[in-house]
Amino acid sequence: EQTPPWWTSAVVYQIYPRSFADSDGDGIGDLNGITAKLDHLARLGVDVVWLSPVYASPQADNGYDISDYQDIDPVFGTLADFDRLLAEVHGRGMKLIMDLVVNHTSDEHPWFVESRSSKDNPKRDWYWWRPPREGFAAGEPGAEPTNWESFFSGPTWTLDEPTGEYYLHLFDRKQPDLNWENPEVRQAVYAMMRWWLDRGVDGFRMDVINVISKDPELPDGAITGTSGLGNGYPHYGTRPRVHDFLQEMHREVFEGRDGEHLTVGEMPGVTWEQARLFTDPARREVDMVFQFEHVALDHGPGGKFDPKPLDLRDLKASLGRWQTALRDVGWNSLYWNNHDQARVVSRFGDDGRYWRESATALATVLHLHRGTPYVYQGEELGMTNAKFTGLEDLRDVESLNHYRHAVAAGMPPETVLDGIHRMGRDNARTPVQWDASPQAGFTTGTPWIAVNPNHTWLNARAQYDDPTSVFHHYRRLIELRHTQPVVALGDFHMLLADHPHIYAYQRELDGTRLLVVANLCGSEQSAELDWPDAEPVLSNTGELRRENGKITLGPWEAHVLLE
Ligand code: TEU
């Protein structure tokens, strides 16, 4: 038996710097703002901070478009501010991982500026350049080299007039894709990663890392949706070469390095079969992956902006399948939220009458699975979706592009806006609610995106002194993972899989059983469940009602028991 890696009992906290805390009054969060708030994280008890991108960037996608990987954007501060933050994080016994965005750069990165300058520039091949489709003139509709649809709507190709060729961008046109087939590109990325590790960072969260390998033939994709564009995913999603690239990265960057590191690959569309390969320690690729199955269960026929109600049985089947799939090899990451997802309490919970109960019930269910939990800033306070009133409130490039394309295609603007209000990424990006003051304690200036009006009662200040608060519930869940080996390492077994409203499971390690049961709806529920001897350890209400082998749970009631 090997000692389990340190991250099996760790909890990660994601910071989206733009929206966390603003120290200089320009309305945008920054590094010094984060440093000033580290006691919040220490109090919560998290082990690792994942910092969304703070590199130099034109901010077309809030920093996921990088123009210099080895500098800090002035809007966030300086390298000296970064070093101070890192030292303060380490000083509190926490680790810090960086966001690694290397599927694409900004179109303003010097690599791309050179690459686009002429067809025979030495860096031309660092990106994907192709002539117009045969029989088409440059710029003509349909002249794009493939029919692929961008993650952010529209074609994945943009024409560069001076050379008459198109470049590939799976995301926005300001995010050209790097050509990972070129070994110089890979070496440049590895050198940059080593530079950050030498500076003291503890690892990386790797942005869309399963799409870095493209089929060099660039075949068209099947047309499935209504946009007229094709699905290119089979030609860039989790192709075999990704495994080669990640193994090479491991050798070039991590092998022989002292210290404890963490790598997590963000992988849209990844299956559990593929995740087993990515996270099998013997293969030396990544420690864990972010999968997307459970956050797509409420997507309707029209995709993410056409949501449908979640059926809890689907959620249990999905998360349960991943628990089983990665039980003997590999490792799960556990998340409800990040900067790309609508707020979970508004999405799968109830942000009205049962706000506190549903936020704490959802937290309980997620955190006690086997895997490493990720808390997204504000989730520990039960922050809700934004109250956007119209287009002018939105900031996100994905939502704005979607609006433009959907309305041009004839969808009623109100329908498009409704989908964006419910599912748009800006919901996750409103400022963290520190207190009840006019800008929620986030900034003394005008915030880049409006604060949620509910900060008058929903804020950190109000929760610190309330032992029943969402904050303290998260704190206790994190403490449980630190103190109970069964939480970190126990086997997982789903219970009541067919119950439409109760989420229940059991974990087991060396004769210790942990029982988790939660009612994830707003009406009383009961079920046959018999654990007469189990001792209560954590609840969001009071005592569990159990009688004659049956339990009864009020709205959003959640319990954790040990035996
Ligand atoms: O996201 C990748 C991704 O596939 C989606 O979550 C995407 O953001 C979108 O919601 C699809 O509908 C990563 C980052 O997390 C995201 O913020 C970036 O915009 C994107 O990559 C490009 O770097």
From TrEMBL:
Pfam families cross-referenced by the UniProt entry: Alpha-amylase (PF00128), SusG_C (PF23915)
Keywords carried by this UniProt record: Glycosidase, Hydrolase
Hydrolase recorded as keyword: yes
InterPro entries: GH, GH13_cat_dom, Glyco_hydro_b, O16G_dom_2, SusG-like_C
CDD domains, sorted: AmyAc_SI_OligoGlu_DGase
Gene3D superfamilies in the record: Glycosidases (3.20.20.80), Golgi alpha-mannosidase II (2.60.40.1180), Oligo-1,6-glucosidase, Domain 2 (3.90.400.10)
Taxonomy, superkingdom: Bacteria
Keyword GTP-binding included in the entry's annotation: no
Record domain Glycosyl hydrolase family 13 catalytic: where: 14-429
SMART domains assigned to the protein according to its UniProt record, in alphabetical order: Aamy
Similarity comment: family membership: Belongs to the glycosyl hydrolase 13 family.
Cross-referenced NCBIfam families: PRK10933.1 (NF008183)
Name the record gives this protein: Alpha-glucosidase
Biological source species: Saccharothrix mutabilis subsp. mutabilis
